[in-house]
């Protein structure tokens, strides 16, 4: 299991994505369903109306019974990847990674996984200077495009305004949307976007990214905190505030998860201190469920 800091240390996003995804899959293909594909799965008795081209004549000659060969075929769908690139994603964990760097690694690995499953993949990077959007494609050149866009991404400003996000909400075919964000927002703008995407495009997997030092409050002594989006600062003593901070944080996390799930989003919390595997597993679980809708 490769740690996120080891993947980041490769300084090669395509290689890191491949290492993370293939290390996780370990040769397994998790998105298959029975059908008339190429890879044999099992037999079942012939029923009137079945395609006679799938009938196993050799087995019929031996058993005097007619059986249909069921095969496995790859399922595929459209996967929309969204990355929150507001300035709060520049927060750095004790392992040296920012949330944005972790998010880039994660979405690159998810893009690799999705294309490996035969899916069409798109990418939208959300920051105040304008929406960076790569339309969904399933061709071999899509991954390099996505990697390049992710590598060029820097965190800045606040989450974009609704008018800038309008192109994401154009009515589209059913898809699986995956959003990586720390959910630091002023007026519920991230939640509003994802709820509307749930309405127009189907399933939404929200990967709520927190830094390890945010979750554990690993600071010591007198600390000055700065809001990366507003520039406001706050001075405090870490030991005096630790208990109150952790109580408030856990309450916020519970409320955030409850709100997301109540509005039909699939919510999963992850930490920049943890390997990518939990999020990759959640993606494949949600992808498989979406494929069978």
User: What fraction of the residues are assigned to beta strands by DSSP?
Assistant: 15-25%
The best one-word shape is elongated
Whole-angstrom Rg: 23 Å
- How many distinct helices? 10
Low-confidence stretches: 27-40
> Share of helix among residues?
25-40%
What is the CATH architecture annotation of the largest domain? 3-Layer(aba) Sandwich
Strand order of the largest sheet: 6-5-4-7-8-11
Question: Mean pLDDT, as a whole number?
Answer: 85
Termini separation:
32 Å
Structural class: alpha/beta
Under CATH, the homologous superfamily of the largest domain reads: von Willebrand factor, type A domain
Q: Kindly identify the CATH topology of the largest domain.
A: Rossmann fold
User: How many domains make up the coordinates?
Assistant: 2
Q: How many β strands by DSSP? A: 11
**Level-1 CATH class name of the largest domain:** Alpha Beta
Helix and strand run: HHEEHEEHEEHHEHEHEEHEH
What can you see in these coordinates?
The chain has about 290 residues and is α/β, with parallel strands linked by helices. It folds into 2 domains: about 5-30 and about 75-290, Rossmann fold (3-Layer(aba) Sandwich); about 30-75, no CATH class. Helices cover about 40% and strands about 25% of the residues. The protein is built from 10 helices and 11 strands. The chain has helices at about 5-10, 15-25, 55-65, 100-115, 140-150, 160-165, 190-200, 210-215, 240-260, 275-290; strands spanning about 30-35, 40-45, 65-75, 80-85, 120-125, 130-135, 175-180, 205-210, 220-225, 235, 265-270. It has a 6-stranded mixed beta sheet, sandwiched between helices. Residues about 25-40 have low confidence and may be disordered.
């Amino acid at each position: 299991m490769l740690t996120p800091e080891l993947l980041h240390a490769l300084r090669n996003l395509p290689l890191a994505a491949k290492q993370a995804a293939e290390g996780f899959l370990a040769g397994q293909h998790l998105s298959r369903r029975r059908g008339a594909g190429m890879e044999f799965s099992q037999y079942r008795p012939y029923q009137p109306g079945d395609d006679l081209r799938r009938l196993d004549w050799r087995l019929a000659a031996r058993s005097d019974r007619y059986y249909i060969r069921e095969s496995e075929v790859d399922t595929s769908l459209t996967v929309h990847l969204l990355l929150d690139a507001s300035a709060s994603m520049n927060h750095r964990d004790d392992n040296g990674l920012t949330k944005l760097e972790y998010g880039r690694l994660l979405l690159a690995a998810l893009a690799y996984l999705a294309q490996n499953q035969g899916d069409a993949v798109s990418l939208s990077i959300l920051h105040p200077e304008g929406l960076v959007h790569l339309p969904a494609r399933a061709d071999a050149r899509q991954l390099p495009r996505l990697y390049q866009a992710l590598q060029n991404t820097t965190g800045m400003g606040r989450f974009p305004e609704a008018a800038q996000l309008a192109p994401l909400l154009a009515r589209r075919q059913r898809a699986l949307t995956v959003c990586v964000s720390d959910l630091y927002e002023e007026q519920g703008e991230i939640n509003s976007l994802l709820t509307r995407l749930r309405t127009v495009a189907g399933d939404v997997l929200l990967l709520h990214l927190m830094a390890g030092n945010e979750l554990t409050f690993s600071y010591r002594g007198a600390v000055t905190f700065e809001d990366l989006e507003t520039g406001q600062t706050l001075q405090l003593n870490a030991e005096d505030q630790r208990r109150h901070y952790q109580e408030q944080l856990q309450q916020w996390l519970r409320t955030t998860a409850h709100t997301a799930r109540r509005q039909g989003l699939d919510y999963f919390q992850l930490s920049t201190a943890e390997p990518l595997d939990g999020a990759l597993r959640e993606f494949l679980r949600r992808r498989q469920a979406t494929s069978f809708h």
